[in-house]
Amino acid sequence: MNDAAVWVPVPAMFYWGWLVPLIFGTIFGWRYHRDQVRLGNGIWFSLFFYSFLTMLAITILGSNIHWLIIISGTLFVLLILLIGLILPYKLSCSYGMRGSCGVMRVTRWRIC
Fold first, then answer.
1. Helix axes 66-81, 39-63, angle to 10 degrees
2. Which residues of 72-87 are buried (b: 16+ CB within 10 A; e: fewer)?
3. If you average pLDDT over residues 2-10, what whole number do you get?
4. Per-residue model confidence (pLDDT) at position 61
5. How many CB atoms lie within 10 A of CB 46?
6. Distance between first and last Cα of the chain
7. How far apart are CA 47 and CA 42, in angstroms?
8. How far apart (Å, rounded) are the C-alpha atoms in residues 61 and 55?
9. Are 8 and 62 in contact (CB under 8 A)?
C-alpha cells in the first residue's frame, strides 16, 4: 500500500449509494420524456448530477489509487476554472453586445 496516497475508508455497503443517482436520473429521464419544458426537470437533473459527482468522488477517493486521485482532482480544478473564468466571458460576447465584450451601453431606451 502506498503511504503517500490519500486513503478514505469506504465501507463495501456504501456502494449501494450508486442507487441514489440512478433513481434521480431515472426520475429525470421519465419526467423529461413526458414534458421537456418544466422547472422540475432542472431540479431533478441537478439532484442527479450532484449526487453522481458525489458518488464518483467517494468511489475515487476510496479506491486509494494515487494517480487516479491526482488526475481527477486536476480535472476538477480545470473544470471549475473553465466554468468560473472562461465561460462567463464567452457568454457575454455571444449575446451580440456592441463595443468591447462584457460592456453594455444604453442608447435611448434599449441596451446595445
1. 150
2. beeeeeeeeeeeeeee
3. 58
4. 84
5. 12
6. 61
7. 9
8. 10
9. yes
Say what the pTM is.
0.62
CA 107 from chain centre, in angstroms, equals 38
Are 20 and 51 within 8 A, CB to CB? yes
| Contact indicator for 44, 61 with CB cutoff of 8 Å | no
Q: What is the mean pLDDT of residues 92-108?
A: 53
| Cβ(58)–Cβ(14) below 8 Å | yes
Tens digit of each residue's pLDDT (9 = 90 or more) over 7-36: 656 666 567 889 999 999 999 999 999 988
Cα 85 to chain centroid, rounded:
15
Q: State how far the alpha carbon of 28 is from the alpha carbons of 34, 36, 50, in Å.
A: 10, 10, 13
Phi, psi of 57 (to 5 degrees): -65, -45
Percent residues over pLDDT 70 in the chain = 66
Positive or negative torsion for Cα 39, 41, 44, 50: negative
